[in-house]
Amino acid sequence: MTTSVIPALADPTAIAAATPALQPGAQVGAQAGYGVSLTDLGAFEQALARASGGQGATLQARPTHSPAEAMQALFRPLGHIDSEAASLSARASAAVDAQRSMTPGEMVMLSVKCHEFMFHCQLTSNAANRTSDGLQQLFRQQA
Fold first, then answer.
1. According to a count of CB atoms within 10 Å of the terminal CB, is the N or C end of the chain lower?
2. How many CB atoms lie within 10 A of CB 74?
3. How many CA atoms lie within 13 A of 25 on its CB side?
4. pLDDT tens-digit profile of 3-56?
5. Burial class for 95, CB neighbours closer than 10 Å (0-12, 13-18, 19+)
6. What is the tens place of the pLDDT at every residue in 89-125?
7. Does a structural domain hold residue 93?
8. d(CA 39, CA 57)
9. In a domain, 85, yes or no
10. Does some domain include residue 59?
11. Could you tell me if 48 and 57 are in contact, meaning their C-beta atoms sit under 8 angstroms apart?
C-alpha cells in the first residue's frame, strides 16, 4: 500500500497543524540566512531593545517628511544633467526625424552640446567623489 503526500498537503487542517506559527494570533519569529550566529541575533535583539527605549522589541512606524532643502540642493545638479540629456535626445531625434542631412553648423552645435553635457557630468561626478572622500575621512576621524 502506497501513501501519497499530496492529499495531506492539500488538506488545510494538515497545513495548519504543521505550521503552528502561522495560526491567527501566534507570533512569527524572524528568520535569518546562512552564516548568522547566536551572537549576531543577541546583538540585534539588544539593539532593537535600545531603539525601542526598553519598552519591548517593537518599532513604531513613523511618517516620512519631504526632503530637506539641503537634500534638494544636493540633487539639483543631477536634475540639471537629466534635463540636458533630455534636450540632447530631443535634438538628435529631431535631426533623425527630419530625414535630411545635418548641416555642418548643426553638427558642430550638437557636438558642442554633447561636450558641454559630458563636462557637466564629469564635474558633478568629481564633486560627488570629493564629498564622499571627505565624509569617509570625517567618519575615520570620529571613530
1. N
2. 14
3. 0
4. 444 444 444 454 455 444 444 554 545 566 666 676 777 777 778 777 766 555
5. middle
6. 898 888 888 888 888 888 899 899 999 999 999 999 9
7. yes
8. 17
9. yes
10. no
11. yes
